């Protein structure tokens, strides 16, 4: 039976994410991906020259989704709702932290294509950080958040909170509420 020669880009990115989460950077290769998608490896090579280009492209797509969701938070009226929204986005897409760790390996590839990918990822990272800082500055201006703390510090706390392991019995919404409560209200007994 002949293998299909066309790949749905969304399925390709979904399978890439799944395999990266399962196998990590070193365990990810086109043979596994082709088996998962039911296509020949040569079909994947028609789209991407190597796994690094595919991973970089996947990371760009993921950053675009996250930036888009963060950009839409300004529609929400309350700065507190915006901050909760940020945390929920970060928890929903917590895999971004794992994938960011692959960037040094991706930077070793010095093709023009990879340079373009790395520049775009750097640009997206700066844009995301700037969006978050702006939300926090607005919350500070509206007196919802302490103004004596640098917005960049609060941004880092929000972004890095996704590395806290979620307890198994807690759903994502409840986990977001608990983390937000600790970040926003602290741990002081009330």
TrEMBL record:
UniProt keyword DNA-binding, yes or no: yes
Source species, domain of life: Bacteria
Residue span(s) of domain HTH tetR-type: 6-66
TM spans (from-to): none
PROSITE patterns membership: HTH_TETR_2
DNA-binding residue intervals: 29-48
Entry keyword set: DNA-binding
InterPro entries to which the protein is assigned, alphabetical: Homeodomain-like_sf (IPR009057), HTH-type_TetR-like_transc_reg (IPR050109), HTH_TetR (IPR001647), Tet_transcr_reg_TetR-rel_C_sf (IPR036271)
Protein name as it appears in the record: TetR/AcrR family transcriptional regulator
Taxonomic lineage from the root: Bacteria, Bacillati, Bacillota, Bacilli, Bacillales
């Amino acid at each position: 039976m002949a293998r299909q020669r066309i790949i749905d880009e969304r399925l390709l990115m979904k399978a890439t994410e799944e395999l990266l989460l399962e196998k990590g950077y070193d365990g990810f290769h086109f043979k596994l991906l082709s088996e998962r998608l039911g296509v020949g490896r040569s079909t994947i090579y028609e789209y991407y020259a190597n796994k690094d280009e595919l991973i970089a492209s996947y990371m760009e797509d993921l950053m675009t989704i996250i930036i888009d969701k963060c950009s839409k938070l300004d529609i929400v009226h309350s700065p507190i709702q915006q901050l909760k929204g940020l945390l929920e986005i970060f928890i929903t897409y917590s895999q971004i932290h794992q994938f960011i760790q692959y960037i040094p390996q991706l930077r070793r590839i010095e093709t023009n294509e990879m340079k373009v990918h790395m520049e775009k990822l750097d640009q997206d990272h700066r844009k995301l950080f700037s969006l978050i800082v702006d939300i926090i500055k607005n919350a500070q201006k509206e007196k919802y958040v302490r103004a004596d703390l640098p917005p960049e510090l609060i941004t880092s706390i929000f972004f890095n909170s996704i590395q806290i392991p979620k307890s198994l019995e807690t759903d994502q919404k409840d986990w977001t509420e608990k983390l937000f409560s600790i970040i926003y209200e602290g741990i002081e007994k009330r």
